[in-house]
Design goal:
CATH topology: NADH Oxidase
CATH architecture: 3-Layer(aba) Sandwich
Number of domains: 1
Mean pLDDT: 95
Distance between the termini: 42 Å
Number of helices: 8
Length: about 250
């Protein structure tokens, strides 16, 4: 059983002085920037993020009003709004360093961006309910499977938190740790967690700007959530999630 001191030691920066020989230094090719698309998968082009009209408001108001909101209206989420939220959290500005890194709407240690974005779509206009994965390099969705029972499954995997299944869509972020380990070795895992925080905070700010509700969730059953997404739990595993929908209040 981990101790509090072990947890605190993990948070501190003591390891940065270690003589680590990374795969990058050894000349090992960089891992792919995103997971490959399964053969025969159905792809959907998303609307450009610029198509969403943001209500007039100032940045001070957005920060002052930001809240974790757990009550969602039954209305579906418009597809352009979902596309904007995906771009705001993982959108790619530019591929750099001879194709081994990207600049995005969020910061990431070494521009490694080790997260993948999955969506449990419950009520989004134009999308059948089911499990999707965002492809940030092409701003597309990849349909993994249709499933109208996802709301209850996601809520169960989130330790029975019912509000998770009541949202229009649930963002579920996985970590592909080797993308960062390739560059930073044992230093990677703290910064991967920091990267997840950057992504979710962008979701909060984008939702607040659009008058939507969201709530970050870090409490879930690891095995159940990984199985729900179809990831192996070792080279890729669930790290964080956030339900999103129109506000009920």
């Amino acid at each position: 059983m981990p101790t509090i001191e072990e947890g605190r030691r993990w948070l501190r920066a003591d390891l940065w002085t270690g003589p680590w020989e990374t795969d990058q230094k050894r000349g090992v090719p960089a891992p792919p920037l995103q997971k490959p698309v399964p053969a025969g998968a159905e792809l959907l082009d998303l609307p450009a993020p610029e198509t969403v009209e943001l209500p007039p408001q100032n940045l001070f108001q957005i920060f002052a009003q930001r809240r974790s909101r757990r009550r969602f209206a039954p209305d579906p989420l418009p597809l352009p709004v979902l596309a904007f939220l995906l771009w705001a959290t993982q959108g790619v500005h530019k591929v750099i360093r001879d194709g081994i890194a990207t600049l995005r709407t969020v910061p990431s240690a070494g521009a490694r961006h080790p997260l993948e974005t999955y969506l449990a779509v419950h009520r989004v206009q134009g999308l059948p309910p089911g499990l999707y994965r965002y492809l940030p390099l092409s701003h597309q969705l990849c349909l993994l499977r249709r499933d109208e029972t996802l709301p209850s499954k996601v809520a169960e995997a989130a330790l029975g938190q019912a509000f998770v299944g009541e949202a229009a869509v649930v963002f579920i972020w996985t970590a592909v740790p080797y993308r960062t380990e390739w560059r930073y070795h044992v230093l990677s895992h703290k910064v991967i967690a920091l990267d997840a925080g950057h992504v979710c905070q962008n979701l909060y700010i984008a939702c607040e700007a659009l008058g939507l509700a969201t709530c970050a969730v870090a409490a879930y059953n690891q095995r159940k959530m990984d199985e729900l997404l179809g990831v192996d739990g070792q080279e890729e595993f669930t790290l964080y999630l956030a339900p999103v929908g129109k506000r009920a209040d």
